Amino acid sequence: MTAIEIRNLSKSFGPVRAVDDISFTVEAGTVTGYLGPNGAGKTTTLRSLLGLVTADSGTALVNGTRYADLASPVSEVGAVLEATNFHPGRTALNHLRVLCTAAGLPAARAGECLEQVGLSEAADKRVGGFSLGMRQRLALASALLGEPRVYILDEPANGLDPAGIQWLRGFLRYLAHEQGAAVLVSSHVLSEVEQTVDNVVIIAKGRLVRQGTLAELTASDGDQSVRVRTASEELRPALEKAGGTVEELETGLFRVHGLTNEDVARLALDQRILVTELTPERSDLQKIFLELTGDESR
Amino acid sequence: MRLVKSELQKLFTTRLWWIMLIVMLLLVVLQLVFLIAFAGQEQNGAPGIPALDDPGWLPIAFSAASTGNIFTMILGVVMMTSEYRYQTITGTLLVTPKRTLVIAAKLMSGVVVGLLFAVVALVFVGIVAVIAVVAGGGTVSLTAHHLPQVALGILIGLALYTLFGIGLGALVRNQIAALVGAIVWSYVIESIFAAIPALQPVGKWLPRGAYEALMDVEVNTGLGASNLLPVWGGALVLIGYGLAFALVASLTTTRRDIT
Description:
Chain A is an alpha/beta fold. Chain A has helices at 42-49, 73-76, 92-103, 108-116, 132-144, 162-178, 190-194, 214-220, 235-241, 261-270, 285-293, and strands at 4-13, 16-26, 31-35, 57-62, 77-80, 150-154, 182-187, 199-204, 207-213, 225-230, 245-250, 253-257, 275-281. Chain A has a six-stranded mixed beta sheet with strand order 5-6-7-3-8-9, with helices on both faces. Chain A has a four-stranded antiparallel beta sheet with strand order 11-12-10-13, covered by helices on one side. In chain A, strand 8 and strand 9 (207-213) form a beta hairpin. The longest helix of chain A is centred in the middle third of the chain and has 17 residues, at 162-178. Chain B has one domain (2-255). In chain B, helix 4 (69-85) crosses helix 5 and helix 10 packs across helix 11 (231-255). The longest helix of chain B has 37 residues, at 99-135. The interface between A and B is medium-sized, with 36 and 26 residues.
């Protein structure tokens, strides 16, 4: 069964069409990045999926069911929305205990989940004194309470320090690839999720721009190139003769289009030219992201 | 049931409830001091507050606990509005997407909180008042002079005022605005309706008028008898308000987009 299925979803706030006919699916065992600039409609999509916002038309299903109709939502879906969903006067442990009580989970889960996100030491501190990063970890802990198989995370990397982002990447991969969970993670900063996601869904101005696997996206739009450094003057004519387009970035440093890494290496070997650097340049997804989402992403 | 427990946990894991409890008891003490000091003294030529050894004093002393209504109303407002203020409503609705269940649990826990506050206030008043009566040479009878009715009125009143707070909070959502609204309504608007004779025919239909009718404690201060509904009428009107606020709370919450 498809873990998350969004079909022709639309939602307007007054005259603003926040989400316009969006459709995509997320399968178990994969991490899907839901990407777009701020205000693209990511949060509205996720909130519709979670039953917090009523869509104007279309359907959003989790495990084949509307979120509101799930028998035990916390045990099926773990959600992380904004970082501010806490009462500042309540301790971290009590925050989770309140949720455990409401969900009918044993109170012990609160402590276990705090430990899982590395917050055990702050368990009895009031959330009001927490940093943004700690709040994100606490939000993630609340998503883990029911040991769900589907995770929906809205900008979970916001406010995390580099070490925290590194940790989050590993954790999301662990959930999907080792626990077999379906993970849908939104972000407006591509580099945060680029190394984590298997699939990408890109939206801008409420509309779906592109979706596919990370490999597909980088391959189809990938403007493959190779960086070559050499002191020899003979390499450039040889490359051009072989069909490559060469631009000189600085003295002795070239970018070659139209030839693979191996083509260039073989040419250099044949010509007995010393090459001191040879780097394949995978077209950065960031570049594609910027092209696809247009000007408003900058 | 677990939702009600969760709602109570929400309240008792934050600090406001005991601050409210202490302030309520302080206000009760102030009133008792006043009632003890002026017991048996004439006011404006009228009999005023009965003497300590008069069996009529005890019910009046017990009615001091009725001042707790404003505190349970504030708690009700905060129980609802802090969910919006701190956006914990998101987490609440993620655990329980069926919103009517959440509201029902909030209302039920509100009744529990109101009853708890009423019991604490009554026990507190009871101890102080009984000591005062015995010290004043009177005999204590807990069933005389519609004392049970006053106690029951306070229990019902405090519970229902918590519901008023929850309903108001659901409607207004802005915590400060809802709190200011609740206090201005109770202390200014309803006081005006209760104090000005020309407005009393309207005032008796307002929550405070109904609440006073429910306890039916008459203190003749020489300003003339106040115009109140019969006891059963007060009870019905007050419960009506409770239901109306509960309805407001559930209607406003079930339809709203949580963004």
